[in-house]
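Practice problem: 50S ribosomal protein L21
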Amino acid sequence: MSVDDVLNIDRVSDETGATLKWEPLLVVDDGKVISDSSELGGYSVTAEVLGETKGPKINIVKFKNKTGYKKRLGHRQKYTQVRVTGIASNTNK
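Answer key — structure tokens:
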């Protein structure tokens, strides 16, 4: 993920234009991989909510042989679309 990337995340209740702040789980900086939680405390990611979207339609068919049982269902997951606005490092180098 980098600045200005648009991502679909699981739905959050924030309104369009709101700012989200996350703590990363993994940072790759010029080939250096940081995954230690004590070092990751100095990093933060901010994103702007663009709106809600829906994922692809998933068709579910249930069928049991010789009983006449058939059932069709569908599901469409709801997502929130966000744009990454900044990746900040609060650590002193």
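Discussion: Strands lie at 6-10, 19-22, 27-29, 32-34, 43-54, 58-64, 69-75, 78-89. Students who identified this feature from the tokens alone can consider the problem solved.
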